[in-house]
Each structure stands twice: as structure tokens, then as C-alpha cells.
Specification:
The protein is built from eight helices and no strands. By secondary structure, it is mainly alpha-helical. It is elongated, with a radius of gyration of 15 Å.
Amino acid sequence: SGINAEYEAVVSTQSTGQLSQEMSDDPLTKKIDEVARLLETCQFPEFWSVIQEEKIFTETVGFVEAVRNFVCFVLKLTYKNVETEFLLQMLGPMETRLEDLALAN
């Protein structure tokens, strides 16, 4: 679909540093840069807040689940135990039960 193709084009050209000035100035490109920076620096609560502003992130099939899996991976590498409240902050707004997510990860 159009949005996914646009997102893939931005991500692939960002990795090679070949974005046109027009694409670099695009608000969506700037938002993707911000979201990537938040994930790379493990600022997960802020990440969840920012992605609520753009439907491309919340409506792209599998995106939220993939990020939650990444967050779980990072938390498993970093901590032996975490408080439930902290975990919920790191995992963002969820429709899935925490127990179901824990079983999957």
C-alpha cells in the first residue's frame, strides 16, 4: 500500500544517507527520524507518546507488536527483574494482556 511503500522508501534511503532535500524537510520524514532516535536510545515511554500523533505508526500492521518485542528484548538484556508499573510504562498502551505478552516473549 502507499503509506507502507513511502515508509520503506524513507527508511531505506535514510540508511544510505541519500534523502533529497524535499524528503528531508517532509514532516513525516522528520517524525520517522524522531521515532527512530527514541527507539535507538531506549526512550520507550516518550516513543509511545510520539507515535500516537501519526496514524502511519499505529495503523501499520505489525509495527506496534514488533516494537513491543524489541522492548522486551532490551529489557531482558538489561534487567533480571522489573516492577509491573515500570514494565507497563516501557510497553506503552496495550490492548493485549500483560500475561499474554510475557508468554510470547
